[in-house]
UniProtKB/TrEMBL annotation:
Signal peptide coordinates: none
Keywords: Hydrolase
The EC number(s) this enzyme carries: 3.1.3.73
Molecular-function annotations in GO: alpha-ribazole phosphatase activity
EC class name: hydrolase
Name of the protein: Alpha-ribazole phosphatase
InterPro entries: His_Pase_superF_clade-1, His_PPase_superfam, PGM_Phosphatase
Stored PANTHER family: BROAD-SPECIFICITY PHOSPHATASE YOR283W-RELATED (PTHR48100), HISTIDINE PHOSPHATASE FAMILY PROTEIN-RELATED (PTHR48100:SF1)
One of the record's GO cellular component terms: cytoplasm
One Pfam family named in its UniProt record: His_Phos_1
Organism superkingdom: Bacteria
Species name: Sphingobium jiangsuense
Amino acid sequence: MSGFLLHLLRHGAPEQPGLLMGRTDGAPCPTGIAACVEQVAEIPFAAIVASDLGRASAAAQAIGAQRALPVTVDPRWRELDFGAWDGLAPAAIDNDAMGRFWNDPDACPPPQGERWSALTARVSDALDTLPARDTLIVTHGGAIRAALAVLFGFDQRHLWAFDLPYGALLSLRVWRGTPRSAQIMGLWP
């Protein structure tokens, strides 16, 4: 069995980059959308899925319009909810609290925020319901890292080693089954 290709595209730059935007739906900038369209110009896929947040779904809609493909919007591909920190710059948050979060986002989530395990659970569920065909998912850095945790069992130290700037594309080959199996095919910043 050959599996299927899963392309995970981080949304392009929002109008206010560098903030912790989980549930905050920061508007995408036109150059960020254009960068996403360009990033996947040579990548074949048969389906497009996007987070329901505008910074991801706007790029997905632009890609879908160019390819005459419908976009399935799925809120399970949202970014981690940063709770009280949502919409803030990391520099505006207590360094110790931020450090505890980065070291263990499940044990030390942001105040009123989402635990890492909740994010990985919803991304795992979203992965289970994908069609077994080559698919592009336009999503967020946290959801991409959650997919890596689910598919490969990477721990936090490994996940933060991946540089996923705005518009980054991570391509995987995925095989269904228990346990799931996947292979990293490429990462393009």
